[in-house]
Structure formats: structure tokens, C-alpha cells
Amino acid sequence: MVAPLELAVVVPTFNEAANVPRLVALLEQALAGRGWEVVFVDDDSPDGTADAARLLGRTDPRVRVVQRIGRRGLSSACIEGMCATAAPVVAVIDGDLQHDEALLPRMLDRLQAEPGLDLVIGSRFVEGGGLGDWDRDRVAKSALATRLSRRVLDADLSDPMSGFFAIRTDVVRAIVPKLSAIGFKILLDIMTTSRRPLAFAELGYQFRTREAGESKLDYVVAMEFLIALYDRMVGRLVPVRFAMFAGIGLLGALVHFVVLAPLPHDTRGGFRTATIAATLVAMTFNFFLNNALTYRDSRLKGWRALLDGWVSFCLVCSVGAIADVGVAIFLFNPHTDAWVLPALAGIAVGAVWNYALSSRFVWGRY
Predict the structure, then answer these.
(1) Of 140, 194, 210, 291, which one's alpha carbon is 20 to 30 angstroms from that of 261?
(2) How far apart are CA 185 and CA 161, in angstroms?
């Protein structure tokens, strides 16, 4: 007789094929006698992570796969996995084997024994917890991120950066429509989105060393964390993606001025040529930076995709570029040589139009 489903373990993955069978074996050992399933949510890994999970799923119906095409991001992967199960409790655990799966039964027991408890969090900073063999640099970065996280949290949580927790499925489903799904810290998103304070408990665990695959930590991930904090604080007023697009636009404005300044612009015709050249250079700069940062979850890769994307970006932004050049030329007074304000006015006019069209036609987002 099949045991009733008690727990779903959601594992967001990208290039973790070598760890899939090992993790399933560890879950089977840790959750022996319990009704469980594991949902691998894979962002179309080129190393065949989804196929590795499917291979196991052919003989073990507890192993399921959600392969996402054209979508990226740890938080959004966790959300899709948590919504793809009928289990009353769902746990999130990394696919790199650094979280201690032996803690899952204790998490489940706490939630089943305490009806008023919403979630149980695996913490590295309470009794029984630890950071393993982290070096001083990584410890310092984690401590800084923890301090920043606590500024937006209305809870005395020791490890807000934890990616290892178990939560009642009905609790998380109730707030899914309001989750930002930005960055890689879904716990922070959940805790700051819920209208009521969530009742939580923390259990210590020892963070383990990755044995296979490559770490996903990089400067872009760190930037995503800061973006997530921004979204929690002011994202309801100015959407984070538009804020990023606008911020890159400001950098593009600097590039625009750097290119424009040395070019001859003492006549209206000379200013027109210089402005067009500066606009093209800034547009190219904006495209590549937006591709790397603003639209990282749907980033264009490969020379052909990048070329097509750049051409599309130039085409859909052409109206904005024309407005940029037209407004700048209209406001430019050759007798005063005051070219900065006209150029800036032109950039501002084109910014919103560029964002709307490029979001839709270059990276396929509304």
C-alpha cells in the first residue's frame, strides 16, 4: 500500500545532472517510511539535468520533473515547483547537496505536530548549525547579506538567507500571486510578502561542501539579491525591472555624452551627425547590459541570438531614437553651444518607449 503523500521536496536545478541520482538516494534514506515526492524544476540545463531526473522517474513515480523553457531564476523555479504538488507540506532544498536532507523529517514532524506553525527553516546560525569550510571572504559576504535582509524583515530570523525550509503548501499558495520571484532567496520573498507575520521555527544544520557541479554564486547573483531587497522596499512604486532598465539608461546617457563630447557639433548639421553616432553607441551599450542584467532570466546567448536581439533592439527602439535625436535637435541652440540639456531631454523622451517595446519584442516579456 502506498503511503499518503505528506511532503514534496522541490529542487530548483541548473547543470546538476551528476547530483540528481545522489540526491534522490539521500532523500529515500532520510524519508524512509514517509510519503514523499521530489520535484526537480530545471531551467533547461544544457548538461541534461532534466533527462537525468526523467530516467529515475521511469522506475520511481516519486521523482517528477518540470523543465522550464525560456525561463530562468531560482525563486521563480521554486514557486512553480511548490504549485505543482498536491502534498500538504513542501520543502525547498538545493540540488548541490550542500543542505542536510536528514533534517527534512524533523521539519515535517514539527509542522504536523504544531498546527499554528507555518514553516520550519534550516538555519546555519542557531544551535547545531554551521558554515562548514567557508573562507573568511564568503563568511563576511553572507554576514553582510544577512544584515541587509533583516532591514526589510519584520521577524527575528537568524538566517534570512537560508534556501532550505519547509512550509505548508496552502500558506505559500495564498501569497504566490504577490511574490516578486526575483533573485535567489525565495524565503526572503515569502517572509516579506505575507500580510500576516508567519509563525516559524528554526532548526540548525551544517552547511556542506559542494562535491559535484559548479557554484552558482557570482556577482550577478549578488546583484539580484540587492534587486530583491529594492523590490521589497519600493518595488510597488517603481517596478524593479523598469528601475533596472532606467538605471542602465542613465549609464547609457553617460556613454552618450562621452561619445558626443569630442565630436564636432558647432553647427546644426554637425550636431545631428554627432548625436546619431552617440545614440547608436549608447543603444548598443544598453542592449548588452540589459541582456546581462535586466533580462538575465531570459538572456540571449550565442552570436546569432545576440545579433538578432541587437537588430531587434535597434528596430523597436528606433522610434525612441528618432524622438531622442528630434527633441535634441529641436532644443539645440547653435548660438549658445548648450548641447547637454537638449541631449538629455531627447534621451528622457525615448526611455519609456524603448522599455515598452524592447521588453515585448526583444526579450518577449510584457
Answers:
(1) 291
(2) 6
